[in-house]
Amino acid sequence: MSQSGALCTAILDWALAKDIGFSYFVSLGNKADVDEVDLLEAWEEDQNSRAIIVYMRGCATAASSWRWRGG
After folding, report:
1. Band (71; pLDDT cuts 50, 70, 90)
2. Among residues 33, 24, 30, which one has the least CA distance to residue 54?
């Protein structure tokens, strides 16, 4: 998950060259319908998610108080 479209493009280009895939890859854009907390909560419930990588420059929602409850 990233707030930077340029970073997303760079990561996808790198991953393609290394034959690396992702279950989910999200550039948040203007976040009209979905925000950071929505995504974090959904991925937390996904049994196939083993890692979550986030790049955020700021967060206006409650994402800063979200805590991963996995183990």
Report:
1. very low
2. 24
pTM equals 0.60
The secondary structure of 6-43 as a DSSP string is: HHHHHHHHHHHHHT---S---B-TT-SS--HHHHHHHH
In terms of Cα–Cα distance, which of 40, 13, 15 is closest to 26? 40
pLDDT digits (tens, 9 = 90+) for 28-59: 876 668 778 888 888 888 888 888 888 777 66
Tokens representing 50? 């083993």
